[in-house]
Amino acid sequence: MIIDFHVHPFVQQEENLCMYKESMDFSDGFFKQDIEAAGIDRICGSVIRMLGKERVTDFEPFRQMNREAIMLAKQWEGFYTPGIHVSPDFVKESCEEMESMKAEGVKLVGELVPYAHGWSDYSCKEFSEILDTAGQLELVVNFHSMDPDQMEKMVAAHPNVTFVAAHPGQKGDFLSHLERMRKYRNLSLDLSGTGLFRYGMLKYGVEQLGAERFLFGTDYPICNPGMYVQAVKHEHIPEEAKELIFHGNAERILGL
Ligand SMILES: [Zn+2]
């Protein structure tokens, strides 16, 4: 069983994040078939439209992405666990959105990608208010890795929120993730994006902090899912560690 904690499904072409989509054909159910062909059984994550770096003036685009995620989750029942967007530029709307989405069964916020949605500070007071509500609603928060100090402040200030940072990054970034994870038990890391191709990275992390703190993820369709599955399989860690990373931890954190 493999759960990919970090995927970006799409409804519209502009939300297809594959960097070489002109040479790929995502029609006729290719998205799901392609993921399954890589050996992945279930996916989690948000629909992302790139709104740009400028401050977004209307919550509607966020609402639309969230609605599309819910629609896909209904279409792919048992396959896709949707993640929703919030923004510190819309505290009230974000909290209301989390409340209504929670009522629809949503368990996950993110992956949040501030750089694409006109905001940049994880430690601002507006985002802190949103996280208070996320904690009350017991929503898991998956966030794109950015400034280390901001990430630390955010995680430290919300011990009741389950956080999953995205992307191990290069060695320096990864060691800094491990340091924060050692300090804060409510922080885990998903293996999507940059990092896993550095051989031995996952083994080192598991030895330092235990396999319970790492979740399998790809960032499909930006990244090749087959590469990530093989990378975890080929790390020299115990089978039980692989089981936790491939599905046990996501099941525990999301209550799947
Ligand atoms: Zn992503």
Attribute tags:
binds zinc ion, 8-stranded parallel β-sheet, alpha/beta, 42% helix, 256 residues, 12% strand, TIM Barrel, globular
CATH homologous superfamily assignment = Metal-dependent hydrolases
Mean pLDDT: 97
In the CATH hierarchy, the architecture is Alpha-Beta Barrel
The proportion of residues in beta strands is 5-15%
Number of individual domains: 1
- Structural class of the secondary elements? alpha/beta
Spatially, the strands of the biggest sheet line up as 1-2-3-4-5-6-7-8
For the CA atoms, what is the radius of gyration? 17 Å
Report on the structure:
- The chain is of the alpha/beta class and 256 residues long.
- It has one domain (3-254): Metal-dependent hydrolases (TIM Barrel, Alpha-Beta Barrel), CATH 3.20.20.
- The protein is 42% helix and 12% strand.
- It is built from nine helices and eight strands.
- The chain has helices spanning 30-37, 60-75, 91-103, 125-136, 148-157, 171-183, 201-209, 225-234, 239-254; strands at 3-4, 42-46, 80-84, 108-112, 140-144, 163-166, 187-190, 214-215.
- The protein has an eight-stranded parallel β-sheet with strand order 1-2-3-4-5-6-7-8, sandwiched between helices.
- α6 packs parallel to α7.
- The longest helix is centred in the first third of the chain and has 16 residues, at 60-75.
- It is globular and about 50 Å long.
- It starts with a strand and ends with a helix.
- Zinc ion binds at residues 6, 8, 111, 166, 219.
- Zinc ion binds next to loops.
